[in-house]
Amino acid sequence: xxxxxxxxxxxxxxxxxxxxxxxxxxxxxxxxxxxxxxxxxxxxxxxxxxxxxxxxxxxxxxxxxxxxxxxxxxxxxxxxxxxxxxxxxxxxxxxxxxxxxxxxxxxxxxxxxxxxxxxxxxxxxxxxxxxxxxxxxxxxxxxx
Length: 144
What we know:
The protein is an alpha+beta fold. It has 3 helices and 6 strands; from the N terminus they run βααβββββα. The protein has a single domain, classed as Roll (Thiol Ester Dehydrase, Chain A), CATH 3.10.129.10. It has helices at residues 29-47, 49-56, 130-140, and strands at 10-15, 58-69, 78-88, 92-101, 106-119, 124-125. The model has no long low-confidence stretch (mean pLDDT 94).
């Protein structure tokens, strides 16, 4: 088994749900984006991004996302979902996601997400606040 914990700032472990399978008896492709969202939100909570957004009205918005499917997942299985921020620019950053199947003993999917910082009050993009940049760098010092 590949151990993701300790190699990424955030790693979640989840059991697959029978109800997430489709007519082809594997986890439906749309569910992978929920896996990515779960990891992204867990990372945001670690960085206190959502607290900052609630306090200031400035926070992240998902601009785009993608998934490369490597192997079909099916119930029963336990997966690990890992995420890391792979690059940062003035107003945005890119996240990378991995979904690892314990039953298959391999990466089942890799994905990406472009996160833009957004001022919800003014309805426009803005620079990533320094407090969030500092939290990102502190959380990733050992990973990138």
